Every structure is written in structure tokens, then in C-alpha cells.
Amino acid sequence: MTELLTADALEAALRDVGATRYHHLHPFQLRLQSGACSRGEVEAWALNRYLYQACIPQKDAAILARMDDAQLRREWRQRIIDHDGEREGEGGIAKWLKLTDDLGLDREDVMSGRLALPATKFAVNAYVSFVKDRSLLEAIASSLTELFSPMVIKIRSAGMLENYDFITPETLAYFNKRPVQAKRDSDFALDYVKRYATTPELQRAAIGALEFKCSMLWAMLDALEHAYLYAKPWPDAFQTADRGQRQAAE
């Protein structure tokens, strides 16, 4: 891309990134929502995904600290409130812990991150470093995976409720508000990117940032699929009770 795109063409390019690179296409995601995962694999997904959920307010705080405009900060800080809540027990992270609680996982194990796969830790750290080290435009553009998350949330939630008898609507409470929040946040971030990506170089950087974010989410699922379906987890990582049973059956 060497010529300046129109705002609409830039939006189309960003949406194409999601259409071709977002993790709704990943085999593990397809297995998860279709009921093909074992309970242990669902547990491993929830435990590892917690690290990503927990990093969201941290990366948003890093972005917030770089904003000079007060109105921009007021808009962005709502993201932190959504995940941390106004008080203990509220917010998206607390609801994710409700999910892991219902799956029978120990909270300290989940929150400490000590049982997460190494690749999960590397991916999450890379994302936080990205928003700290790259331009503000790139940091904001990386959040545009929220353009595509409402679709995935709807399909995932419906599939999990239909296919897993250990999943209830209360277990998936985290996802109730996320489509509305994600649309609000992605509308704001998309408008920002379209307004401030004013050169071909800046537009390429914004598209590249979204590609990076998609690759980070994809890498997390790659690690889960490899560890819990084809190989075995890192020795210090979460070990599923049903893995040995599946191997014995094979």
C-alpha cells in the first residue's frame, strides 16, 4: 500500500484483517463452540484466557497514560472500569473468575497465572509491551479486534450452552455485556484511527497493529491446541484430568 486510502477504504482494509485473521477461524475456537472439546480443554482455555482478560485494564491504563487530551482520556477510562469494576466483585475480570469457579478451578491457581502455558504468558506480555512501545495510533488500532468479537461471543456462548452440560448461563455471565461494550469501544477506536491515520505510512501502521493483535490471539489458541490435543502441556502448566483417559481410549 503506497497510496493514501480514503476513510472508507481504510475501514474496509481493517475489517478484512478481521475476516481473514481473527480467531473465529481457528480450529480450537471451532471445536470449543461446537462441543468437540473435552471438559479439561475447556478448563485449560478458561484458565489461560484469564491472563489475557487480566491484562486488558493494564494495557488500557498504559494507553490512557499516553493521552494528552482530557476528553480522550475520559472516553478511554471506561474500558478500565468495565473490566475492573467500580468495586470488588464487579467488572469483567470478576465475571471471568465466575466462569473459572464454575469449572471447578482454584482461584489462586487461575489468578497467579502459574499454570498458564508459556506461550500464553509470552503472548500477553507481548501485547502489553506493544501498546507501551508503539505509537498511540497503533496502540488504539490494536484494540480493533473488538469490531469482530460480538459475532464470536454470540456463536461461542450459544454453542457452549448447547453442547456442555457443565456450562450454564450464569457461568457465561462475562459475555452478557461484552457485545454492547465492544461495539461502543470499537466505534470510538475506529473513528480515531480513520481520523488520525492521515498518511499511507500511518495507515499501514494501523493495519499492522490490528494484524499483530489478531496474531497474538491466534498464537494463544495455537498453544492450547498443541498442548492439550496433539502433544502435552509444559510440565508446570495446567494438566487436564481427561487427557490420560482420552489417550487410553485411543
Layout of helices and strands:
Layout: H1 7-21, H2 27-34, H3 39-64, H4 70-84, H5 92-102, H6 107-112, H7 118-133, H8 136-141, H9 149-163, H10 174-196, H11 200-230, H12 242-249
Helix pairs in contact: 1-11, 2-9, 3-4, 3-5, 3-7, 3-11, 7-11, 9-10
Provide key terms for this protein.
single chain, 250 residues, mainly alpha, Heme Oxygenase, Chain A, 12 helices, globular
Question: CATH topology, which one?
Answer: Heme Oxygenase, Chain A
Contiguous helical run count:
12
- Poorly predicted runs are none
Question: Which superfamily, in CATH terms, is the homologous superfamily?
Answer: Heme oxygenase-like
Q: How widely separated are the two ends?
A: 50 Å
Quickly name the level 1 CATH class: Mainly Alpha
Helix content: over 70%
Outline, from the CA principal axes?
A: globular
Strand content: under 5%
Mean pLDDT: 95
CATH A-level architecture? Up-down Bundle
Largest sheet: none
Please count the beta strands (DSSP E, at least 2 residues each).
Answer: 0
Class based on secondary structure composition and strand pairing = mainly alpha
Based on CA atoms alone, the radius of gyration comes out at 18 Å
Give the count of structural domains: 1
N-to-C order of helices and strands: HHHHHHHHHHHH
